[in-house]
């Protein structure tokens, strides 16, 4: 049971900047919201009169919809903005864009941006609460929160549990946020993938490294499989998707050979047949769709807690 | 110009007056008298801050002066004012202007300018046309027109064959090649030092080997060509060690370090503050210690301000979109005193700022003696001041210490019968 009833921070810029107590408070709050969204009437008035702007400078489907649903179920007023339909293409700077939106009296900003640290930059210059919905290869805190929340539902308290993260660690904000979050909750974390997709200094964050998929599956209680981020790879880090799928992808035969059940997760969108085979994604091992459901509850919790402290 | 400098602690390693406290009388631009309790005279201006020091004028070996073509960042006038305020009487201008300084007329444009005769500009000609790294420039022509050295400045020379030919070609006139070592295929898009901090920030890193591979390459090429090379702005412990070994084997190599890399380490960028985004990047505490040790044992000859003025449109941005570089001419000395006072004595500093740069470029060395022309920097090691926005003489404000209280201050420079007071 958490002892604080308020987050230690005004913004959620990354898991790095949250305390363990913050994370547990978010989970506890998310648990109650999960009950709410399974009621016939899914809406509560907690964020009435709060205006939230969803600013997406990078493509997103599930995260954007998940945030929007969370905001609407809390009765917030919501405005959406995406880079493709905006003046960013006309050369406006981030600060100008955001200041213009804030001039219309927005209280909270949910932002996705391709530049690592873009939210820090913004936090220095504007007054609204900022929630990071992904900043380049840095962090994606609400994804890590919903991942850990979903893991806990399946395997109980994460202290001492073995969690493996597979795939493109180098270009993944989900991996970094997961590592920070799982470490704070006491789990043991291992990353696994081709050496060219694992940052050389990743061990300094307190994780193990392996390049052996079978061995890592054998070791872990939960396998979090990341998407190959082809759009972030401007040079070749591995020779072909075919070879990647063959040597680093996870398929049913591999899972069956383990002789033990494990939980399989994926933050989506999945590349079927590359990092994860369809017979795994659609299997009983997989909790991919529960993750999506929990995403709404966790984001409601984050929005609620930040608004409550305003 | 007449001026009486009272009780100045003289920092002039190797000279008779070194370490003594004297009054210096400057008359008509010459040192007219040196002594104790020299008489005041009506109308004779006096500079008498207790604890002040005097040395020969300082020289920076590579600043971006913005002129021609980038005058929104800096002009020769503002660069000169910034240099004078920072205690410099000469500044070598990097060729990365628009157009690039890669021919005789470009060199002449820089060398004919001076800041009120106080600050001399020393043109560095490009090694390759347009600093594109491919075809070597008319270096003999540029040298005759006043170029003091050849470098592609902020653009490390990637092509080993071009580097080799440049090192060989300058031997025709005893010239000097300067390279800031970085293999760009290895550093590939790196924003900060690759290590613990870059990993936690999710930023692409510049591994130390990106620099070290090129230092090793350049030293091999130098040995083969039997020429002269200056490696500018080293940042890694490995690079310092390679230069140390090369010097002990008798290669004609010298090295410099940017004040930023001496003062800060990788942790300075952890908050995504683009005013710590520099190239070479701020590296590990161990690298910083090795750089300081390199300055102390003479492996690193020169400390540079590595002055890179930038407008806020390219600096006040998301970290990975911001350009590399910070201003440094006005704050080098104060940074050294504020952060390195336990490490760096006045003698080492003056050696690295005044004597070694002149040796590098083959410039005459002024002496502090009666009858000599006065080319002096007066500075105070303990005076506190704030580098305030209103006081900035550079045209750009991209400094990590803007608005910060600092210790140690240049008081003024004297050169060519003129006196510039930094306190005015």
UniProtKB/TrEMBL annotation, chain A:
Detail which positions bind carbamoyl phosphate: 62-63, 112, 140, 143, 268-269
What GO cellular component entries does it have?
A: cytosol
Which Gene3D superfamilies does UniProt cross-reference here?
Aspartate/ornithine carbamoyltransferase (3.40.50.1370)
Q: Does the keyword Transferase apply?
A: yes
Catalytic activity reported: carbamoyl phosphate + L-aspartate = N-carbamoyl-L-aspartate + phosphate + H(+)
Q: Where is the Aspartate/ornithine carbamoyltransferase carbamoyl-P binding domain?
A: 10-153
Listed pathway(s): Pyrimidine metabolism; UMP biosynthesis via de novo pathway; (S)-dihydroorotate from bicarbonate: step 2/3
Gene Ontology molecular function: amino acid binding; aspartate carbamoyltransferase activity
Per the UniProt record, which EC number(s) apply here? Answer: 2.1.3.2
What is a biological process (GO) this protein takes part in? amino acid metabolic process
Subunit relationships: Heterododecamer (2C3:3R2) of six catalytic PyrB chains organized as two trimers (C3), and six regulatory PyrI chains organized as three dimers (R2).
Role this protein plays:
Catalyzes the condensation of carbamoyl phosphate and aspartate to form carbamoyl aspartate and inorganic phosphate, the committed step in the de novo pyrimidine nucleotide biosynthesis pathway.
Concerning its family, UniProt says: Belongs to the aspartate/ornithine carbamoyltransferase superfamily. ATCase family.
The family database entries (HAMAP family) matched by this protein are listed as: Asp_carb_tr (MF_00001)
- Protein name as annotated: Aspartate carbamoyltransferase
Origin organism is: Phaeodactylibacter luteus
At the highest ranks, the source species' classification is: Bacteria, Pseudomonadati, Bacteroidota, Saprospiria, Saprospirales
From TrEMBL, chain B:
Biological process (GO) annotations held by this record are: purine nucleobase catabolic process; pyrimidine nucleotide biosynthetic process
Gene Ontology MF annotations: allantoinase activity; dihydroorotase activity; metal ion binding
Q: Which residues form the Dihydroorotase catalytic domain?
A: 57-236
Matching entries from InterPro entries are given as: DHOase, DHOase/Allantoinase_Hydrolase, DHOase_cat, Metal-dep_hydrolase_composite, Metal_Hydrolase
Q: Which Gene3D superfamilies match?
A: Metal-dependent hydrolases (3.20.20.140), Urease, subunit C, domain 1 (2.30.40.10)
- Which keywords annotate this record? Pyrimidine biosynthesis
Query: GO cellular component annotations, sorted alphabetically?
Result: cytoplasm
Which PANTHER family does the UniProt record give? ALLANTOINASE
According to UniProt, the name of this protein is Dihydroorotase
- Write down the species: Phaeodactylibacter luteus
